[in-house]
Write a structure and sequence with these properties.
Elements: H1 3-12, E1 16-20, E2 26-29, H2 31-37, H3 49-52, H4 58-71, E3 73-81, E4 87-99, E5 102-111, H5 113-129, E6 131-137, E7 143-145, H6 147-152, H7 163-166, H8 173-186, E8 190-197, E9 203-215, E10 218-228, H9 230-248, E11 252-257, E12 262-265, H10 267-273, H11 277-281, H12 285-288, H13 294-307, E13 309-317, E14 323-335, E15 338-347, H14 349-384, H15 397-409, E16 416-420, H16 426-435, E17 444-448, H17 454-462, H18 479-482, E18 487-491, H19 501-510, E19 512-514, E20 521-523, E21 527-532, H20 536-541, H21 547-553, E22 556-560, H22 569-585, E23 591-592, H23 594-601, H24 608-622, E24 627-628, H25 649-663, H26 674-677, H27 682-692
Parallel strand pairs: 16-21, 16-22, 17-18, 18-21, 23-24
Antiparallel strand pairs: 1-2, 1-5, 3-4, 4-5, 6-7, 6-10, 8-9, 9-10, 11-12, 11-15, 13-14, 14-15, 19-20
Helix pairs in contact: 19-21, 22-24
Bound molecules: adenosine-5'-triphosphate.
Amino acid sequence: MNTDLSQWLIQALPYEVFVLNREGSIVYANDMFLNKLGYDAKDLNTLTIFNINSTVTKVSWAEHWEHLKEVGTDNFKEAHQNKKGKLYQVEVFAQFFSNNGNDWICALAQDITKSSFYNYLMESTEHMAKVGGWKLNLQDGSLIVTSEALKIFETKDKNDLLPGKVIHHFMEADRLKKLLSAALQKGTAYDEVLVIKGAQGNKKYLRCVAEPILKGKKVFKILGAYQDVTEQKTFETRLQLFRKIINNAEDLIYVYNREGKLLLYSNSVSTKLGFTKKELDGFTIYDLDPKITPEWWEGHFDEIVEKGVLRFEWLVGRKDGTKFPVDISANHIFYDGEDLNCAVIRDVSERKKRDVELFQALEEIKSLKTQLENENEYLKDEINQEINFGHIICQSKEYQQVLKKVDQVAPTDTTVLITGESGTGKELLARAIHENSSRKNRPLIKINAATLPSELIESELFGHKKGAFTGAVEDKIGKFKLADGGTIFLDEIGELPLSLQPKLLRFLQEGEFDELGSNKTIKVDIRVIAATNRDLEKMVADGKFRVDLYYRLNVFPIYNIPLRERKDDIPVLAKYFLEKYSNKAGKAFRRLSKKTITALMNYNYPGNIRELENLIERAVIIENGTTLNPGSWIPIPEIPAQIEDFKSLEAVQREHILNALKQTNWRVSGPKGAASILEVKDKTLFAKMKRLGIERQTNFR
Ligand SMILES: Nc1ncnc2c1ncn2[C@@H]1O[C@H](COP(=O)(O)OP(=O)(O)OP(=O)(O)O)[C@@H](O)[C@H]1O
């Protein structure tokens, strides 16, 4: 090769060519070298390796020289610096020459800045975006894949990514197979997210994209990419899950900003409150709760921001205007540069209802407990009184008639008035009525108006509140409340003070009363049985008993006949009492002698059965043996029609006139008047009435 040709060749090569001597001086360089580094040919006298590569030192150059001398050639990458100081990357091919005792290194350098930077950039970007590319040439079947694509499939063999093989990485292999064959055969592009299984069995979501390139109608290349979107997908799935949780929540979930605008809400807000989503989308807190003012909201929002979370009770309104109680937990969230209020609202209607029910039940239990305690107290007192009820002894036809009435009225709720002399067994009848009624499992409460001081009767009957009067140091439950559900037995009703009669009347009419010192009306369900040994009709006539009350009580009267009018009962009663007191006293009496019975039958018993009972009790104490014979204890029969039994003339007249007036309904004059019946002049009768103090009791009739 001649010198010109070799010179031309060196200049024409697409490389920077330069020759260096042992000292590192550049003794020759082609134009490309000079141009690239910004030097002239005349600079070659002074230019050294140290000018173009600032990292080379004298020592490293000497080592490099020796190394090349030994190995002959070498290939490496370096950074060259141009005259202005700018660096660029080069790939160098260096060769050691020796000629006539002169040694040189000849180097060929190529600027690789562009290719290496873009490669680096591409690789880093692919890695950051987790995108691996591939290109399939259908002409020769060759496949090019990027290193990131291999990483995604966790393989080193690019052939693993050939269509026939890559499908096996996928969990839905058939899906990808279909997509690939459509791309290969018809040139159909695709962009889908599919799942592969990683080496550790972990799921990876891949976005698979393919872009076929066609020549005419024929597919000749396919460009594609796989992107690992597992993170996004997991995030997305989690987001969907959170959304689902929020939307399925029973609780109402709202997110508001400071202006009160509703930014987000759970489905329950719409379903529970009755607003459409369209309505809610434009809502503010003020639309949802018109009670809220901007000042309140501002203060509330500040408090949430300050405290992080606030819990409180509230009433939430539905679209139809109804409201329900809720527990609210309002949480502060700082999101996207903005303070938000995320409120979780729980409907507590059921709980509140249960609380009220529980409270009511507790109150009921409390009141039942007090009632039971009171009943218990009462019953204890009753037991101490040793009343012998349940043993109604009867043989006479007369008394059987009385008991028949008891049988008839017992099952009803009708008010009963038992009249009769003292000791005839009125209380026994009252108990028999109660025991044979549906109320028998509830108490029979007895109150005797004759045994109580009149000022205490009202509180005893109706109860009082603490402080109702001086001495009322605590609440007292009245007998009426105590008897709720059962029967009240008002013994000696004739003794009830006139002042209290209206209150009893109100109870009989309405079934309600007020406790003393309370304006709360109490309603109870009670059957009333009253008893008296007094002539109530006369008391009415005398203005001592209210006529309206009398009629209310006298719904079903039972007259308890005196013992002298049912003498057939004397033998059986006497035997019953003999056994009772004999047993009690530990005596041996078994029977009464005929004489005793005759003697007992001859007596009239003004004290009725109680008197007979007392007699036998006394006899058992005095006498001994198995048969009770007459003794000092036998009462002497009364002498009938004693002088003191006669009424005065005035009393007889008074009674006679009153009877006539009752007949005429207090009409004195006229053909149907009392004067006409009594065959006296009107004037005479008026005068007599005045003298005898007969006055119509207009307030009761
Ligand atoms: N048929 C009867 N069989 C057995 N004992 C009776 C009978 N009738 C009354 N007694 C008894 O006679 C006594 C007096 O009866 P009770 O107290 O019921 O009379 P009362 O009419 O209510 O008297 P008072 O009007 O004085 O209150 C009681 O011990 C009662 O048990």
